[in-house]
Specification:
Mo/tungstate-bd_C_term_dom, OB fold (Dihydrolipoamide Acetyltransferase, E2P), 24% helix, Rossmann fold, ABC-type transporter activity, alpha+beta, 8 helices, 340 residues, binds adenosine-5'-triphosphate
């Protein structure tokens, strides 16, 4: 099923949400943005849990915005699992099937199939409170997909879990999506989740979608500073375009850059900059303030003039706090953004 959201509109006091978004059949699309940008509101409107002030929500071209939530063919998973505490795991999963009047034998076999899928067959008779957070979220996932929805919506489903579990469960969620050929809309504020899980990501700010694209294109070629800095580690050096060069506030001509003269920032990733011992034209004097060992690599923090910069280095880097060096920004990878 293709989900089409067109000019969907909602106002709360000063907050205004206005969104156009398409999730193609079989696609996994994540909406990412800071707290309060409207991600949950968007998802809840698509689910029918929140009224819209205007706009259209369509599945394969059929308008669903007038339908009650249970009639939309949409499954939803929430951050806090929202399981029924007084019902056993199997009954939680069977809930939506019962609502749809599936007979007992049908329910039983479907529940078994789903508990198998989320690897919880042996927990069928347990109550939610006796399960771990990750297990409860897998029950919630099984419950959401039990009635074979055409679209699956997930609202920060991993936020309440610890880091290790989040990595395992995000892989499981993606596997379930692939195996059942679902159309999935996933909301998160976690950039790593969005980058690793999604076919496409939509970056949202203050009720608007700023850029939509593949994880790689958003990470490598953001169209604006917000998208670039929100997804992954980055550097933003203030300065100006002047006669074909990006020039820092200290007057260093860093790299050639095209465009009209004016103020802005040079944006580059920590692996788009090299740390050298020797000065050279265009290199920025840099003082290391801290080196973080990150497992297979190191993150070198430091200052270039008034600016903080982070650089990826090998795990066995020779750089250490207090050392002075010179930064060479990769001319082909850095992007200039005008003041936003
Ligand atoms: N029922 C409501 N009544 C009034 N204002 C609301 C309501 N629901 C959401 N808002 C406001 O709408 C804006 C968007 O909220 P929303 O929960 O959609 O953001 P979010 O991006 O999901 O945030 P978070 O990541 O913190 O969950 C916020 O300013 C919020 O205060």
């Amino acid at each position: 099923m293709t989900l089409n959201v067109t000019d969907l509109f909602r106002t709360y006091g000063d907050f205004q949400l206005r969104v156009d978004l398409t999730v193609a059949r079989g696609e996994f699309l994540s909406v990412i943005g800071p707290s309060g940008c409207g991600k949950s509101t968007l998802l809840r409107m698509v689910a029918g849990l929140e009224p819209a002030d205007g706009g259209s929500i369509a599945l394969n071209g059929d308008e669903i915005s007038g339908l009650a939530p249970e009639k939309r063919g949409i499954g939803m998973v929430f951050q806090d699992y929202a399981l029924f505490p007084h019902m056993r795991v199997a009954d939680n999963v069977a809930y939506g099937l019962k609502l749809r009047h599936m007979d007992k034998a049908g329910r039983k076999s479907r529940v078994r199939e789903l508990l198998d899928l989320v690897r919880l067959t042996d927990k069928a008779d347990d109550f939610p409170a006796t399960l771990s957070g990750g297990e409860q979220q897998r029950v919630a996932l099984a419950r959401a997909i039990a009635p074979s929805p055409s679209v699956l919506l997930l609202d920060e489903p991993l936020s309440a879990l610890d880091a290790r579990l989040r990595i395992d469960l995000r892989r499981e969620i993606r596997e379930v999506h692939d195996r059942l050929s679902l159309t999935t809309l996933y909301v998160t504020h976690d950039q790593e989740e969005a980058l690793t899980l999604s076919d496409r990501i939509a970056v949202m700010k203050q009720g608007r979608i700023l850029q939509t694209g593949s994880p790689r294109s958003l990470y490598e070629s953001p169209e604006n500073l917000f998208t670039g800095t929100f997804l992954g580690l980055s550097n933003a050096l203030e300065g100006r375009l002047q006669a074909g060069w990006f020039v820092t506030e200290e007057g260093i001509k860093v790299i050639p850059a095209e465009g009209e003269d004016g103020d802005g920032v040079l944006f580059f990733r920590p692996h788009h900059v090299m740390l050298h011992g020797e000065p050279a034209p265009g290199r920025l004097p840099f003082e290391v303030t801290r080196v973080e060992y990150c497992g297979g690599w190191s993150l070198v923090h430091g200052a270039a003039g008034a600016h903080r910069v982070v650089v990826f280095e090998p795990a066995e880097t020779r750089w250490a706090a207090g050392k002075k060096g010179h930064l060479a920004v990769g001319a082909d990878r850095a992007r200039f953004f005008r003041g936003e």
